Amino acid sequence: MLVPVTPTTRKVIRRASPAPTARLMPVPAPVGGLNFRDTLMGMAPTDALVLSNVIARGNGCEVRGGWREWATNLTHSGSTEVHSLLPYHAANPVNDKLFAVVGGRIFDVTSSTSSPPTALTPTGASGQWQFVQFQNTAGNFLCAVNNGAGFYTYDPVGGWVKRTLIAGPSAIDNITSIAVIKRRLWFTFQGSTQAFYLAIDAISGALSAFEFGSLLKHGGNLVGVASWTRDGGVGVDDYTVAFGSKGDVCVFSGYNPADAANWLLVGTWYIGTVPTGHRFWAQVGADLFVLSAQGLVPLSMLLSGRFREGDLQQSVTSKIQPALNSAVTTTGASSSWEVLHLPQLDILLLKQPRTLSGMWVQWVMNTSTGAWSTFDNVPMQTATNWRERFYFGTTDGRVARGICCQLANTDGVLLDGTA
Q1: What is the value of pTM for the model shown?
Q2: pLDDT at 314
């Protein structure tokens, strides 16, 4: 007789899963700065896609300083936009001055105030003023020019004085830029391919002309001249650089354009479309950096033959070039592009116009490492250094101080100290 056997249930012993464990991993600081050039997998671990309101240092990232109001209620002829800030550094610091230009009127903003006094209301003035500081045996002068108002100087003794220029173009007040090159003042004029210069150490009088038109292979007019001090100082080996509105760059050696034996063409180059205006270059150490659609181009690369048109990898802005090129292309027609060297922070600042979406963005390069970051939400329409401090003007009638001086870690502190 067969008896059914009930099967026994076999139990499977399950082992408990190991408890999850945490592991500490070092994450390097983004000291390499922004990188919009490489793929995410190809980026170095020290690069970043967002690096806002900090400066990438060699040993970490430094949060920028805040800013506060310095002068308010700047308005003239219905305008509140601060077009220019004009700093004056006197032989005696007691006589230092800071001026702000709004709607063609020049205000004295040397002292922090809500009621800035008027310093000058020149006839025909509009938009930006360009300026240099110039010293001769007669004194130490702030020299400022405007396309419409002409050429003015300021010094503590004579105040603001309109200077007479002779033998220049017929529209003698339509001056677009000014430069000091080997003890001479140089000028460019609206729509002209000529640069004009005064006698050595002169601040008025007869102008002499030099024609650059045949060297501007891409057309346009002359928008500025500059002195390139290749050794970081001022000497006989300095070059004269001329910029064409379509991106041509002409470099000359020598000090007297009237003497062919003492005025030699070093070369001409094309660096791409440059922004409208006359503030798209800056001297940093022994190099002159020029902003164009191809990036920030050091002129030393031109002379050494390392610059090749269209090769964006060579630019010091190569890691941010996709974003910068878009910014220059979309806002290059605005005259409010500025390139500023802030030695107190060891940075080069590219101040672009307000974006089409209404955002304020400034590009910041550590001049020691070449790493890039951005300053965001700082309403910077124009900017300057004065007394080793950083000042900027806004579109709503204010001058502010901060960023490089740790006045506060808060933005927008009012004159009365409240945030």
Answers
A1: 0.90
A2: 62
74 vs 96: CA distance, rounded Å: 20
- How many angstroms separate the CA atoms of 49 and 65, rounded? 22
Contact 175, 188 (CB under 8 A): yes
Query: What's the CA angle centered on 353, arms 352 and 358, to 5 degrees?
Result: 120
User: CB of 243 within 8 A of CB of 256?
Assistant: no
HSE-up (13 A, CA, CB side) for residue 248: 20
Q: Is 82 helix (H, G, I), strand (E, B) or coil?
A: strand
pLDDT band at 193 (very low <50, low <70, confident <90, very high): very high
* Sign for the pseudo-dihedral over CA of 90, 283, 103, 189: positive
DSSP state string for 319-344: GGHHHHHHHHHHHTTSTT-EEEEETT
Q: How much is the pLDDT for 306? A: 72
Give the number of other CB atoms < 10 A from CB of residue 89: 15
Residue from 342, 65, 409 nearest 419 by CA? 409
Q: Residue 303: which residues within 8 A CB-CB, separation 6 or more?
A: 251, 266, 267
